[in-house]
Amino acid sequence: MADLPRPPIERFFCHNSACPDHGKRAHGNLYFRGFSGRGKTIRMVYCRTCKRSYSERKGTALERSQLPPDKAVCVLQHLREGCGIRATSRLTGVSRDAISRHLAKAGDQAKNLHDELVAFSPHDP
Q: pTM for the whole thing?
């Protein structure tokens, strides 16, 4: 699988709940500052307002994942298509426990995204 596309800085927001710019996307307070992870491939996001930094994976299904990104996405694609945990394990070569963790994390992130999108949707009259 090819490298996954990297989102621009405008797609990120500060995760520090004490920051005045918490949750604001494309507010101009963030920039990329350094790399993290094995092979230094994960970008670090820095907030100018609260002076905190965090991984670009924070708040995503890939947060704290030890799998390569393309393998983790492959696992999630199998699950999305209706494959069970055991079948996904056989097809991808990833342990059932790791698949269960990714499934739980992806479910939590999907719920958070749903709640965020519903909060901004127009109300029915």
A: 0.66
